[in-house]
Specification:
Growth Hormone, Chain: A; globular; 467 residues; mainly alpha; 19 helices; two-stranded antiparallel sheet
């Protein structure tokens, strides 16, 4: 009994280390939120310029997710996480010292490579070391970490802007506040890098790499002597008959002459998570609420409150994902988001433009928009936020996992890039109501996608996943 407790504690500890990648994913994604005004002032970037500055990181995310998925089959899950940690450090420092829009974009793309790699590698690593009955909850800790990173970036931005008066004002050592907003990230990034040196490599990667002895040592440390040996045999039996190294062509079923259905389901899950427009709230939350009439300080404070609600929603998902399953949570989330996004679109449709082209809402419609948007964020973080990453980390068979994550990751971040880049254009040309109507339609269609195509993975061993 004591050994089992020790194993559980060990699994939890290495899960927490892996999820620091998720924390940095959230922090790096959210920190931009409070710096938009400072960036516009420093680099004289407006509308599409601002959209590209914000979205530039996402290009790196797509590339990072793809190559991390592919290279993880060659060099290991842990190695990819270490490279991601180094890139987080370079990006955090560089984004703060940037003196031009192009220089800033380069450092944000480096950060994007890190976020993309961490986004697919952390859930894959957790899925590959966690026991089946707790895998959903442990993988959901990744989303708790993402939201915690977002929350602390919002809180950090708010505190720093409050100290100086604005993200554009000078703070310490004669540097603008927005630069310090980026430099705060160096603390968790360095912590992540150092912690990674003390965790083991994924035993399933070691088996795929034909390093049975090392895999067995890790499995025994995770599950004990007897269970570790049994798990080794199960993993061995699940791999390709000729024990070839995983490759992208494994995603193609040569017998049926088509791409395996599981690949399309992974791409669908990854894409729909973005088509509901969640990152508009993450990246442009402060700008959005200023458009509704709140000042910069109030808008940043609303983001902090939204982040706190998000953490609560993810914790609820963590408690339920291994009990009621992944699919029911996705359906509940899709229905809730479709309704709340429609309400936000309705509220914004009643607005009028002031002389300075700012959207003005009545008190009742402003409150409806605020409440519905926050409830929408709760539904997302109760469902699609954590569950999509849980499923991508576990739904692919061992032989396909790296390649499946590579393709799904590039679809996820590519969709994210398009949504983020187009929002400022929609905001200025067609208005907030039209933009939110598009995201509501995405949520509505996702209901039918989940019900028809997504298969439940609750309680299944990774070796039971079918391609």
């Amino acid at each position: 009994m004591e050994t089992q407790k020790t194993n559980n504690l060990y699994i939890i500890l290495i899960t927490l280390v892996a999820t620091l990648g998720g924390f940095l994913f959230g922090f790096d994604s959210g920190v931009i939120n409070g710096t938009v005004k400072g960036l516009e002032s420093a680099f004289e970037a407006k509308d599409i310029g601002s959209g590209f500055n914000v979205a530039s990181m996402l290009l790196g995310c797509a590339v990072g997710a793809y190559f991390a998925g592919r290279l993880a089959d060659k060099f290991g899950r842990k190695s990819m996480l270490i490279i991601a940690a180094v890139f987080f450090i370079i990006s955090a420092w560089g984004s703060g010292i940037a003196t031009s829009s192009m220089e800033f974009i380069v450092y944000r793309i480096i950060g994007g490579l890190a976020v993309g790699a961490a986004s697919v590698m952390a859930p894959a690593y957790i899925a590959e070391i966690a026991p089946a009955k707790h895998r959903g909850a442990l993988a959901t800790v990744q989303q708790v970490a993402i939201i915690s990173g977002l929350f602390l970036s919002f809180l950090s931005n708010y505190v720093l802007a409050d100290l100086s008066g604005s993200s554009e004002n000078m703070l310490w050592m004669n540097y603008e506040t927005w630069r310090w907003m980026f430099w705060v990230e160096l603390i968790p990034a360095l912590t992540f890098l150092i912690s990674l040196l003390f965790i083991p490599e994924s035993p399933r990667f070691l088996m795929v790499s034909q390093k049975k002895d090392k895999a067995l040592n890790v499995l025994k440390k995770l599950y004990g002597e007897v269970a570790g040996q049994e798990k080794l045999n199960e993993i061995d039996a699940s791999l390709a008959a000729d024990h070839h190294e995983p490759r992208l062509s494994d995603l193609y079923d040569k017998t049926l002459g088509r791409i395996r259905p599981i690949v399309w389901i992974g791409i669908g899950l990854a894409t729909f998570q973005q088509l509901v427009g969640i990152n508009v709230v993450f990246y442009y939350g402060a700008v959005l609420w200023q458009a509704v009439g709140f000042g910069e300080s109030d808008a940043l404070l609303i983001n902090v409150g939204s982040g706190a609600l998000s953490i609560g929603a993810v914790v609820a998902a963590l408690l339920l994902v291994d009990r009621i399953g992944r699919k029911p949570l996705l359906v509940i989330g899709s229905v809730g988001m479709a309704v709340t996004l429609t309400l936000v679109a309705v509220a914004f449709s009643t607005g009028t433009l002031s002389a300075d082209n700012t959207l003005e809402l009545s008190d009742s419609m402003g409150m409806l928009a605020l409440v519905a948007a926050n409830v929408y964020v709760i539904f997302f973080n109760f469902s699609w936020g954590p569950v999509m990453w849980v499923m991508l980390g576990e739904m692919f068979p061992n032989q396909l996992r790296g390649s499946g994550l590579a393709v799904s990751g590039i679809a996820q971040w590519g969709s994210n890039f398009l949504i983020t880049l187009t929002f400022p254009i929609l905001l200025t040309s067609l208005g907030l109501s039209f933009a939110y109507s598009i995201y509501a339609a995405g949520a509505f269609v996702s209901i039918f996608f989940v019900m028809k195509y997504v298969h439940e993975t609750k309680g299944k061993e990774l070796e039971q996943m079918e391609g």
